[in-house]
Amino acid sequence: MTKPSLIISDVHCHDWSQFSKIDEDGVNSRLRIILNETERHAAELISRGGDTMVIAGDLFHVRGSIKPSVMNPVMESFQRICDQGVQIAAIAGNHDLEGVNADKLGNAMQSLDAIAGFTAVTAPMRFQDYYLLPWYQSLDNLRSEIEKAKQNCDPSKTDLVIHAPVDGVILGIPDHGLTAKELGEFGFRRVFVGHYHNYRDFRNGVYSCGATTHQTWSDPGSIAGGIMVYDAGVEHLPTQAPLFVDIKDPDMLTEDVVSGNYIRMKLKDVTEAEIKSFRSEVIEMGARDVVIEAIKKKAGTRVSSIKSGASLEASCSEFIKSDLKPAREERVQAIVADILSEAS
Questions:
Q1: What is the spatial distance between Cα 77 and Cα 91, in angstroms, rounded to a whole number?
Q2: CB 3.0 to 4.6 Å from 137: which of 60, 100, 229, 311, for a disulfide?
């Protein structure tokens, strides 16, 4: 590659409910943020002289059900990118598929293949200096396809892009048996892996791409953004979209942490007046929105100053605390909060 190329992953275009509204064009505001961030990365690629973009899976979020109000803005966004001369190849991730394995009929991205310059990838293929593999439910099948890929290219001069669970990307997620060490030993120049929402350089030529933006309460602390790829190395481009930030100690409240982000505060032994005061303080610091989970001094139950489903969330939270070891509690709390958020 004499010019840089761009890799993004786990874009998860969706009509997100939490913290969203409908903008003046009728588009979900959080979907608009995601698309704007995607176009910003594409503009950065163009400004550096590049014209190649790879999406490492999960362009969409809901398996087998993409609303027109999501699909149409997505198509318009990628049409604008391709109209600027960018060639895009997007591998099918598990969230893009109706079934368990990749195929054209069940791939939500397939409609974008009609855009000149956009290639939806549901089977192994070469794409410039990349070899692209879509989602495989079986890791053994994935390993077999990687071995086949080595026969169809010079792996030492080729970057492999896959969508798969790699051990050690996110603490608390059980290992699946696919390691960065194993991926590095296949012999490709570099391996870029989508699926888990955290950027990580494993220091052996293997990279977890991470998501383009934060999307749920599973994401606090994760590194989001895009990857600019050069012959000599890679550069991570941090997201400029709002982050999901957990505040567990009021002393953590600083403008640098809060401004422009979605904030969740967990407070103990506070009065209703103190809850309102904390909320006002966070909003004044520039938070885009705030969720407050609190155990009140008198009632002894958790309430939320802005969400109506707090009693269910409180019940789940207390059950998790009583039933799990501390090492696993935080991760499970985040997953359950995400599920409750989507259900609301």
A1: 18
A2: 100
DSSP annotation of 10 reads: -
- What pTM, to 2 d.p., does this model score? 0.85
Angle 34-121-50 (CA atoms, 0-180°, nearest 5)?
60
The CA distances from residue 19 to 309, 337, 340, in Å, are 15, 14, 14
Smallest CA-to-CA distance from 217 within 10, 13, 19 is with: 19
Residue bearing tokens 């995601």: 34
CA gap 319, 216 in Å, rounded: 21
In our burial notation (b when 16+ CB lie closer than 10 A, e otherwise), range 120-150 reads bbbebbebebbbbbbbbeeeeebbebbeebb
- Rounded to whole angstroms, how far apart are CA atoms 86 and 51? 4
| Residue-wise DSSP of 229-263 | E-SS-EEEEE--SPPEEEE-SGGG--HHHHTTSEE
Q: What is the DSSP string of 98-146?
A: SSSS--STTBGGGGGGGSTTEEEESS-EEETTEEE----SSHHHHHHHH
What span, in angstroms and rounded, lies between the C-alpha atoms of 291 and 296?
A: 15
Beta-bridged to residue 53, according to DSSP, are 6, 88
Looking at residue 296, what is its pLDDT? 76
Q: Which of 48-62, 147-161, 180-194, 263-277 has the lowest mean pLDDT?
A: 263-277
- Reading the block at residue 287, the tokens are 């938070």
d(CA 302, CA 320): 14
3-state secondary structure of 334: helix
What are the φ/ψ torsions at residue 224 (nearest 5 degrees)? -115, 160
- DSSP per-residue string spanning 171-217: TTSPP-S--HHHHHTT--SEEEEESSSS-EE-SSSEEE---SS--ST
Categorize the per-residue pLDDT at 311 as very low, low, confident or very high, splitting at 50, 70 and 90: low
Contact present, 128 and 5 (Cβ < 8 Å): yes
Average pLDDT over residues 215-235: 96
Model pLDDT for residues 257-273, shown as the tens digit of each residue: 999 999 999 888 888 88
Higher pLDDT, 79 or 342: 79
